[in-house]
């Protein structure tokens, strides 16, 4: 099948391949940078029913998904949206389906659309982006955001508009229905509550004493609950629910059979079953975080991914990563004055030595993150803190960077001090030749930046680098004698020369 490739368009599109449905959003940035959605389509392809029940996608499910993608591709062609401006993202069901690659390859072969399977952390980041865009008032409040999907539930703590903690738990509606569902409704509800109680500690740890002013709920089931609140309880608006109203809704829903929910509430067949686990998870979460009012902005992963795609065109891609790094630094009680000074120096080195190191612009962000977070391991134990930092950065969720970038970041921080691993070291095994070159250059720049603030007094104010084609000259200006900084920098000279491929003169 052939498709005409249109010219570049202001319109962009996102396809959200969820566990309960596949969604298409087409839009652009309108006046004032607001997101304008011009096309929103939902196809009820329940990948999670196969993935969570059997561990693989069935032939019929793959066929329905392919048909949906063909329909979406034709619509994109009519809207003149080129594939370079389309992002297709898959979540929990595709993460777990052992034969997901078959669907990915067939979709690409038949439509040209490339499916990207994202992590739960990236999913939470994108949904949070949509929420913050829709609710700018969150910049002045502490909020707890819950997104209930078919396979997983994402929890995000927002302190005055900044993401400070997040978690993705495998307690989505389709998954819970597959695991606990059956003919006995009372037993199902009891098992749901018991399962939540077993996971409540993770949510308490996430909040970690932060006073929650407001809750935000996203996902089709939460939007349906908002509509049911207005319909059954006369709440006045589908955009807001109080805890007591949600509790009353749960009671009303539990008293109805699946058929009664279809007939009396006019719910879709693929909503009438999963609304039960969704309502109970939401009720339990709100109770756990202090029973705040719930805002329902009507946005989700698709809108967040579309906003992210559009904002990347405007150079706003780093904000979440840097805000997240700042929250991690606070959590692990990093010396922020030293970390900020190392970042300041590292970015000067990166920018002025760009013609020499030739690293992509994206690596500037990785170096900045490494500078901010290089001492988080001290929180665990000062001795060998570079190793502890490596473990923490490898294990924790990280916003705004890919899994591969996170592994590289962790390894750069791991090698900030002591002897570098040699070529046979298992630490370097995941890196190919090109990645090892990037790693060594970033390590060299980080080590020099740390050395230039060895006394932790901000003595070096400016760095001036010059390259004449043969030698690199690094000249530092500041206050004091800078003797300790000079000694520390000269100790890193051999590594820097090896990484950059030229002799280096260091003047302080």
Automatic annotation (TrEMBL):
Residues 33-312 form the Ppx/GppA phosphatase N-terminal domain. CDD domains: ASKHA_NBD_PPX_GppA. One of its GO terms (molecular function) is exopolyphosphatase activity. Transmembrane segments: none annotated. It holds the Pfam family Ppx-GppA. PANTHER family: EXOPOLYPHOSPHATASE (PTHR30005), RETROGRADE REGULATION PROTEIN 2 (PTHR30005:SF0). This is Exopolyphosphatase/guanosine-5'-triphosphate,3'-diphosphate pyrophosphatase. Its EC number is 3.6.1.11, 3.6.1.40. InterPro entries: ATPase_NBD (IPR043129), GppA/Ppx_hydrolase (IPR050273), Ppx_GppA_C (IPR048950), Ppx_GppA_N (IPR003695), PyroPPase_GppA_Ppx (IPR030673). It comes from Methylomarinovum tepidoasis. It comes from the Bacteria. Keywords: Hydrolase. It is an enzyme of class 3 (hydrolase). Residues 326-465 form the Ppx/GppA phosphatase C-terminal domain.
